[in-house]
């Protein structure tokens, strides 16, 4: 065999792997294989569909993979977000994050271990006090992370009266400039879903044209129970899976295990 050819192929494979987006979910990584580092990924869904949970889980996977990350939690405080992040990381029920007395001795030991481990994470967290687009961009450029997570760009749109195009265009320019991959979340409109199975599509975004234009991939989260869920719905009725619909490039649908007690998302293992 041609040694130079083999070396070139090896280098290409290694280089592509190094610059691919790795979320920690093999099927999702396959969907995002058309996107390289420095892409803008939009995650949409109705309220309580799991957008924040997905970003928290991908964030955990990235930090454990020694990537530098920055997270903008625009819909909650820094403290509350960090509590939820810890719960997802060590599988403590989310509601117990705000009830210290509810923790068992075992949970307290897990919490102590997690606190020690997370001190070494290369992660910066900003919260709802920082929703100005200009300031967010300044922080991203200053930190120069591998991955950026902006949970709730609707807060920027509403508070600063920006349209979606301005926000996405500015963020896309950042991905091109520093080659950081940016995940953003935005809400979709429940009222416009009128197909037989209530499955959301790109038409349910407020500005689908610009979302498709500036995003390398668009992912919509779909949990059937969310569209009928009441506050007093029994726990057993809630969906134990979450569907991710890729709507721009691969047009694929994948299903992941979703444990809403912890906000934990895992791959489904076929036994």
Total number of strands: 9
The CATH class name reads: Alpha Beta
CATH architecture: 3-Layer(aba) Sandwich
Q: What is the global morphology?
A: globular
Mean pLDDT, all residues: 85
Number of domains: 1
CATH topology: Rossmann fold
Radius of gyration: 19 Å
**Please, how many helices?**
9
Helix-strand topology string: HHEHEHHEHEHHEHEEEE
Structural class, please?
A: alpha/beta
Largest sheet: spatial strand order: 3-2-4-5-1-6-7-8-9
Oligomer: single chain
Main sheet characteristics: 9 strands, mixed
How would you summarize the topology of this molecule?
Blueprint: H1 3-18, H2 26-31, E1 40-45, H3 51-64, E2 69-73, H4 78-90, H5 105-118, E3 123-126, H6 133-143, E4 147-151, H7 153-159, H8 164-178, E5 181-187, H9 208-214, E6 217-222, E7 241-246, E8 253-259, E9 264-266
Parallel strand pairs: 1-5, 1-6, 2-3, 2-4, 4-5
Antiparallel strand pairs: 6-7, 7-8, 8-9
Helix pairs in contact: 3-4, 4-5, 6-8
């Amino acid at each position: 065999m041609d040694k130079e050819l083999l070396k070139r192929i090896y280098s290409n494979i290694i280089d592509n792997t190094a610059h691919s987006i790795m979320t920690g979910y093999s099927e999702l990584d396959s969907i995002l294989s058309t996107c390289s580092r420095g892409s803008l990924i939009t995650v949409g869904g109705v309220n309580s569909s799991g957008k924040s949970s997905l970003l928290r889980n991908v964030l955990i996977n990235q930090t454990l993979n020694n990537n530098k990350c920055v997270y903008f939690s625009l819909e909650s405080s820094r403290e509350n977000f960090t509590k939820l992040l810890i719960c997802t990381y060590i599988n403590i029920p989310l509601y117990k994050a705000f009830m210290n007395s509810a923790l068992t001795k075992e949970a307290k030991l897990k919490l102590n271990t997690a606190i020690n481990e997370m001190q070494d994470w290369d992660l910066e967290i900003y919260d709802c006090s920082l929703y100005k687009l200009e300031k967010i961009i300044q922080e991203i450029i200053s930190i120069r992370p591998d991955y950026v997570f902006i949970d709730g760009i609707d807060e920027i749109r509403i508070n600063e009266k920006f349209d979606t195009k301005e926000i996405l265009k500015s963020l896309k320019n950042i991905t091109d400039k520093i080659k950081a991959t940016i995940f953003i979340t935005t809400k979709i409109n429940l009222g416009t879903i009128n197909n037989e199975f209530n499955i959301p599509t790109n038409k349910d975004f407020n500005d689908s044209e610009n979302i498709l234009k500036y995003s390398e991939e668009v992912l919509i989260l779909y949990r059937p129970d969310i569209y009928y869920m009441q506050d007093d719905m029994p726990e057993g009725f809630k969906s134990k899976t979450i569907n991710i619909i890729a709507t721009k490039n691969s047009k694929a649908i994948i299903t992941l295990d979703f444990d809403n007690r912890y906000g934990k998302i895992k791959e489904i293992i076929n036994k």
